[in-house]
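Sanity check record (used in CI):
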Amino acid sequence: MTRLWYGPFDGNATVTDSPTPHSSRRSNRRLALRRRALRKHFQFYSKCKNWALAQNVSVSPISWRREHWVLASVAVAFTVIVGMIMPTWARAMKSEGEVPSVTTLSLPLPALSADAQSADDKALAGLAAAGMVPGMENDAWKIAIVRTGQSLADIFHELGLSPTELQRLVNANVDNGAFRRIHPGDEFAFRIDGAGKLQALRFDRDDHTRVVLRLDASGVHSEVAERALERRVHVAHGSIKSSLFEAGDSAGMTDSMTLKLAQAFGYDIDFAQDLRVGDTFTVIYNDVYREGERLRDGDIIGATFINGGRRFTAFRYEDGEGTVSFYSEDGRPLKTSFLRTPVEFTRISSRFSAGRMHPVLGKMRAHKGVDYAAPTGTPIYAAGDAKVEFRGVKNGFGNVVILQHGGQYSTVYGHMSRFAAGLSGGQRVRQGQLIGYVGMTGLATGPHLHYEFRINGQHRDPLSVTLPKPEPLPATELAKFKQLTQPMLAQLKRYEDPRLALAK
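Expected output for Murein DD-endopeptidase MepM/ murein hydrolase activator NlpD:
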């Protein structure tokens, strides 16, 4: 067992070893290392215990020892280094001199001519009308764009305007419909005074009409300003490589204009199955501009489409009754007289048959139409232009609509859940007009449309009947149509021939 005894701090220590019977060689080596470390520590402390920069003079006279010289040398060296660095740093931070003063001189400008002054005034007025000149009248307008599900009352609340002011506008009955028929994206501008009261409301009634409603103590005053529209005509030519929309984009057309192209030729070309790589199209279309700014897509004026080696043409034409349709180059309407299927269906649940087992009655009966299975509420459209012969309830059919198309054709739509709003007997309907919704009224086991096609009262299979071709334009209309479309047709043909297109 080892015991250590430390005496006063004079470097002396007594180490007493009392070996134990069980001590080993490893423990003896550990004790020897410990004694050596203690001796080194005490020797260092005995040398350094009197180090100090200041001495007690009363105890011993001032004398310079080795440690004093070391500390003094370090202090002197530090002082010299600082002395060398500081002047250089001071010169680096010193300003090179005062910045010379700038003198502004007022130079007389030549007077503007009357024409130049008038042009500047007009330009300034135009900027003010656009709300781009701070401090002028239009700078006070606050623009609000209608969001989905938002009403005009919500906009008034967001702007901190009182509902009383909205009611005042409604009661004035000035362009009242504009407040009830707002759509996402519509823009309203508000002019609000310093007290937070509405002074004026501005909105576009349509593309070319702007309305400003001004409020004062005497009431609400309406100002209507006409805004000129400009239609700029473009020609695009494309070739199908992967898809119609990719080709339209490469030709510089927007997706919506490409969709209009597909709709124009949709009666002749099935773009889901018939489109081929290498098919080409040429389109003459326009864009709508207002005050030099592009407002929206316009219309397709004329187009040709070569699909699988077959050439189709389409020209937009408004007839004497104001009906706008697409016609081929010989004046025949592109849309067929009848839609092949008047509903977007999920599957055909029962086909036309001379005899089938009725799912409700449980006996064999002829099925004189086609059943299109679809969810309840799916829209049903008129297959062609017609007069409503019957609208009501019939046994077996449930809610049913019967349309008479001219003299010999009629169509039947059965098992409707409800009729379209406003539909009544004797009413005229257009092809594609909503007439009702899919249901399962009458003898039906599930929601579907029972559709029949009759010629002179005889039932025909709607899936295989040869649909009549639409009648061409009357002679007088046809002459006018050809006069308008011949120049466009010549231009389209030039783009179809690559050599002529390059020459152009």
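The longest helix spans residues 66-93. If this sentence no longer matches the regenerated tokens, the check is flagged for review.
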